[in-house]
């Protein structure tokens, strides 16, 4: 019998859809090969190449400044580190809003060039036609309602949504429209738990919460937030599972100090000529 174990089955969009009511789903962002590889090895169901790339990797103030080319570039890198999880690419600002045809073309780039296996877009019923056209073209789509960071200018900042009964009912209609259009899951961001529960119960596709309480079908967090690698701000809904930023700084300070005092590199890090070759230099 072979000593090699069979590779784990690659998770697909239909697998995510089938998980509704069966188990909780877990998703995290990643933006390059090493972080995607670590996320994949950790057993994540989904890895999202989020447009949060703009803030946590490229240093922009919001998510509006990242381009399609940048997103495709980072998605392609993350794909090289992903073998099991479903790799989802975020459609950046103005990559799908202008018209349906452009939306399908750009979504297709994520699959053909970026090697993602699904895309995510922000917005409710207004973008149901875009979702439907993508799905007809063979592109699995994840929806995203609630706080939609690409609309931060319209929303007046990074503010929780769905805080009234009327707003909650409107979000239910948005979610149903996305479901009817063929979305295989929907992210619910920054809303009261009661609103998230109402939406989760109203649709037959999994909801993935971020700042939406513990009533959704799964959760997503930004890698840099949960590992303590982004220090500009920490959203209330983030739990930091590590403080790697301080660990990295401490390690670099030790490296700098050892270089300064001559402790690094030591004998164990140094290559020497053989005695015969050294004698030839004499």
3D architecture notes:
This protein is α/β, with parallel strands linked by helices. It has helices at residues 13-18, 33-41, 53-56, 68-80, 100-112, 128-136, 152-155, 165-181, 193-202, 223-226, 244-260, 275-280, and strands at 25-29, 46-49, 86-90, 118-120, 141-146, 185-189, 207-210, 218-221. Helix content is 40%, strand content 13%. An 8-stranded parallel barrel has the order 1-2-3-4-5-6-7-8, surrounded by 6 helices.
Topology summary:
Layout lengths: L12 H6 L6 E5 L3 H9 L4 E4 L3 H4 L11 H13 L5 E5 L9 H13 L5 E3 L7 H9 L4 E6 L5 H4 L9 H17 L3 E5 L3 H10 L4 E4 L7 E4 L1 H4 L17 H17 L14 H6 L2
Parallel strand pairs: 1-2, 1-8, 2-3, 3-4, 4-5, 5-6, 6-7, 7-8
Helix pairs in contact: 2-4, 5-6, 6-8, 8-9
Overall outline:
elongated
Helix content: 25-40%
What is the CATH level 1 assignment of the largest domain? Alpha Beta
Tell me the structural class.
Answer: alpha/beta
What order do the helices and strands follow?
A: HEHEHHEHEHEHHEHEEHHH
End-to-end separation: 58 Å
Strand content: 5-15%
**Overall tally of domains:** 2
CATH topology of the largest domain: TIM Barrel
- CATH superfamily annotation of the largest domain: Phosphoenolpyruvate-binding domains
Q: What kind of sheet is the major sheet?
A: 8 strands, parallel, barrel
Number of helices: 12
Proper CATH architecture of the largest domain: Alpha-Beta Barrel
Overall radius of gyration: 22 Å
In the predicted model, the low-confidence regions spanning at least 5 consecutive residues are 1-6
Care to count the β-strands? 8
Q: In what order do the strands lie side by side in the largest sheet? A: 1-2-3-4-5-6-7-8
